[in-house]
Amino acid sequence: MGRKWNNIKEKKASKDANTSRIYAKFGREIYVAAKQGEPDPESNQALRVVLERAKTYNVPKTIIDRAIEKAKGGSEENYDELRYEGFGPNGSMVIVDALTNNVNRTASEVRAAFGKNGGNMGVSGSVTYMFDETAVIGLEGKTADEALEILMEADIDVRDILEEDEAVIIYAEPDQFHAVQEAFKNAGITEFTVAELTMLAQNDVTLPEDAQAQFERMVDVLEDLEDVRQVYHNVDLGE
């Protein structure tokens, strides 16, 4: 493992900083999660996960509150949660998660993003079997050994703990997402550099320079699509 999660997050946030696109996407995701259950993160696990991730991207409280209030107000705006799978240059693998109120539009845009950048759409299940859903929690101010000690005291056994740059990254089972955070919060750590559920490739691949440049363009196009929530892949971008 080891995708240098902090650097990836910072790259995404920097790319979207001028357009506030990332905030709009979080607003939609928070609204959908709040509408699917109680609009309270204490009783709505899906909402809690989204809010924890939003915090690491410094999403303004006004965006969060507006989305939750919209859900409370009984808005009739509905979104479908979709997952697309496909292949990039040199057989690289990509998963695209989307929230959309127009399935035909989203499918067309995602297909075009693949096709115009050396990739192609796959059928359902053609890629996901090579990925594992994983909880990723990042924090600063502790060593990997200190983080492990905190988790052991809370009787939590995770997949892996790595030091990446100046942060410690914990890889855990999806259902441990909140338990891992609570263990650190109880130890006085309340800020996380990364807090998300992701699809982690079982094996990363390295592309030739020209193919990697093409792949990065494809990922950028996919991430810029209004309806796309997350893009996962198995390419080592050397972040």
UniProtKB/TrEMBL annotation:
List the taxonomic lineage.
Bacteria, Bacillati, Bacillota, Bacilli, Bacillales
- Keyword annotations of the record: Cytoplasm, DNA-binding, Transcription, Transcription regulation
Q: Can you say what this protein is called?
A: Probable transcriptional regulatory protein AM592_10075
Task: State the organism named in the record.
Answer: Bacillus gobiensis
Tell me where in this chain the TACO1/YebC-like N-terminal domain is found. Answer: 3-74
Limits of the TACO1/YebC-like second and third domain? 79-235
The record's family statement is: Belongs to the TACO1 family. YeeN subfamily.
Q: Name one GO molecular function term.
A: DNA binding
Q: SUPFAM superfamilies given for it?
A: YebC-like
Q: Where is the signal peptide?
A: none
Coiled-coil segments on the chain, per record: none
Main subcellular localization, coarse class?
cytoplasm
Its GO biological process annotations read: regulation of DNA-templated transcription
